[in-house]
Amino acid sequence: MKKAILFDLDGTLLPMDEEKFTRYYFSMLCEMTAPLGYKPEDLVREIWKGTAVMVQNNREMTNEEAFWRHFASVFGEDKLKDKPVFDRFYETRFKEARPSCGFNPLAKDAVAICKDKGYRVILATNPIFPQAATYERIRWAGMQPDDFEFITTYENSTSCKPNVMYYEEILEKRGLKGEDCIMIGNDTTEDIAAEQTGMDVYIVTDCLINKNKTDLETIRHGSFADLLEYLKQLPDVK
């Protein structure tokens, strides 16, 4: 009997063209931090490298700590004093990136169906963003952070997708087993990795990311409308 449903955010609950979103996001961040002396090309390059460091994190520290260690190693320890400016960006300007994403009215319905059936609902979004940015994107998807029992962010996570440790950490923190859960996502690399813990996986194909050309015939998959029908057919949690 399943107990919990894990949802990915970007490309799953929130339709997204990642390249378009990234252009919006980096443009605004570079504009806000330019007065601090950061050259756009240098900042963008090191944010990507810092993201790679977080993806390689093996529960040695939080992803937040991993990112800022890299940042300080490149720009200098004294630049850590600028972290509040970056934090303020996510709390204020980041919302201006909203037009770069789509909107799916069925997303809220999917979460509501799971909760009405008694499932625990977790937002398993790759934790490379601060809480403020993650919560903002949840609102873009038409929901509120308190719609979820637990939300992964770079502050509370010590690994990233597709590392199986990411899923193991969620299970440990929420007192769950892999076989208790269904992971719903759109990335065949990042989200199918949940199978390694014993989770079932459903791949939403509306904004499919399939860089490794995974054969979806071996994985439960479908459009978001198909997902809704799948969720409706799940048994109520007793």
What does this structure look like?
The chain is built from eight helices and six strands; from the N terminus they run E-H-H-H-H-H-E-H-E-H-E-E-E-H. It is of the alpha/beta class. It has two domains: 4-17 and 102-233, HAD superfamily/HAD-like (Rossmann fold, 3-Layer(aba) Sandwich); 19-98. Strands 3-2-1-4-5-6 form a six-stranded parallel β-sheet. The N and C termini lie close together (9 Å).
Helix content: 40-55%
Number of domains: 2
Strand percentage, roughly? Answer: 5-15%
List SSEs in N-to-C order.
Answer: EHHHHHEHEHEEEH
Total beta strands: 6
The main pleated sheet reads as: 6 strands, parallel
Structural class: alpha/beta
Radius of gyration: 18 Å
CATH superfamily of the largest domain: HAD superfamily/HAD-like
- Principal-axes shape call: globular
Arithmetic mean of pLDDT:
97
Q: Low-confidence runs (pLDDT<50, min 5 residues)?
A: none
The name of the CATH architecture of the largest domain is 3-Layer(aba) Sandwich
Neighbour order of strands in the largest sheet: 3-2-1-4-5-6
DSSP summary: helix tally: 8
How far apart the termini lie comes to 9 Å
CATH topology call of the largest domain: Rossmann fold
CATH class of the largest domain, please?
Answer: Alpha Beta
Secondary structure layout:
Blueprint: E1 4-7, H1 18-33, H2 40-55, H3 63-75, H4 83-91, H5 106-116, E2 120-123, H6 131-140, E3 150-151, H7 164-174, E4 181-185, E5 200-204, E6 220-222, H8 224-233
Parallel strand pairs: 1-2, 1-4, 2-3, 4-5, 5-6
